[in-house]
Amino acid sequence: MNILHYTQHVLGIGHLFRSLAIDRALAPATVHLVTGGPAVQMELPANVRHYPMPALKMDSGFREVQTVVDGADLEATWQEREAILLELVRRLAPEVILVEMFPFGRKRFAREILPLLEENGAAARPAKVLCSLRDILVEKDDQAAFEARVLKWLNRYFDGVLVHADPDLIRLDATFSRVADIRCPLMYTGYVAQGPQ
């Protein structure tokens, strides 16, 4: 199986290392891991091919996207990243696209994720698109607008949601009230953790 996995870490590296643990567990499938955050030293599992994009991060107030390289042009960086994603989905023709957090998070990165999903949808054999989602979502100032936006994108582009949680401890509806309006399958995977190294 051929999997394209998009992950974007913006402040810490927890999302990135959870993504790596998932990719390791997907062996023997080949995972093409596309990252877009600041460079991190990491040991890649044997089944993972890494495609780092020009790095972006959030400012300390979590309001604006910034380039990691001082002086780099933000708009040019966005355009380069989108071109990389489109080229990868065309060339690799994945069977599955795994997207970390989006559309429940990473709203600022919709400008590159949505074209990727549109390109996939136009393919002769589109990949199945899955959202890789953490257990507890951050409360939003306008929760109703947030949930409406999530549902619009989720119900249009996604084939499933993988919630990395134990439903006996916490269910998605504890932090997302409109779970019943999600039209694609929602599956609880249990928590994801790195094994002993």
Can you walk me through this structure?
The protein has 197 residues and is an alpha/beta fold. It has four helices and nine strands. The chain has one domain: Rossmann fold, CATH 3.40.50. It has helices at 14-25, 74-92, 110-122, 143-157; strands at residues 2-7, 30-35, 48-52, 56-58, 65-67, 96-100, 128-133, 160-163, 186-188. The strands form two sheets. It has a seven-stranded parallel sheet with strand order 3-2-1-6-7-8-9, sandwiched between helices. A two-stranded antiparallel sheet has the order 4-5. The model has no long low-confidence stretch (mean pLDDT 93).
Descriptive terms for the model:
seven-stranded parallel beta sheet; two-stranded antiparallel sheet; Rossmann fold; 197 residues; alpha/beta
Give the helix/strand layout.
Layout: E1 2-7, H1 14-25, E2 30-35, E3 48-52, E4 56-58, E5 65-67, H2 74-92, E6 96-100, H3 110-122, E7 128-133, H4 143-157, E8 160-163, E9 186-188
Parallel strand pairs: 1-2, 1-6, 2-3, 6-7, 7-8, 8-9
Antiparallel strand pairs: 4-5
Helix pairs in contact: 2-3
What would a concise description of this structure say?
By secondary structure, the protein is α/β, with parallel strands linked by helices. The protein is built from four helices and nine strands.
